[in-house]
Amino acid sequence: MLNLASEIEVLARFGRALADPIRCQLLLALRAAPAYPSDLADTIGVSRTRLSNHLACLRDCGLVVAVPEGRRTRYELADPRLGHALDDLRTAVVAVAEDVTCADAEEKGCC
Questions:
Q1: What are the pLDDT digits (tens) for 45-86?
Q2: How many domains does the chain have?
Q3: CA 110 to chain centre
Q4: Considering only CA atoms, which of 31, 39, 43, 33 is closest in space to residue 91?
Q5: Measured distance CA(70)–CA(9) in Å, rounded
Q6: pTM of the model
Q7: Beta bridge partners of 65
Q8: Rounded to whole angstroms, how far apart are CA atoms 24 and 82?
Q9: What are phi and psi of 65, to 5 degrees?
């Protein structure tokens, strides 16, 4: 069982991963199914270099894993519960604040 400090660090790590729209797209894409970097880059519409940096971040956060398959590497969520957590978080935020935007969040220092 995690202590409070460890729980806070885990949540902060998840928050940092979700703080970037590209990483959010990656997590949502991987929630649907494991994928190869070239396919993810095409789906999301970013360069492979940029995608690689975001995948490295998500790996470092422990949210995705790289699975070697011969000469290729497939990416998937580190745990299936992350997909459920993403679904729950997305639906909860929409239900609570469907019409709220975070346009001035940086000015307020919250993001």
A1: 999 999 999 999 999 989 999 999 999 999 999 999 999 999
A2: 1
A3: 19
A4: 31
A5: 35
A6: 0.81
A7: 76
A8: 12
A9: -125, 150
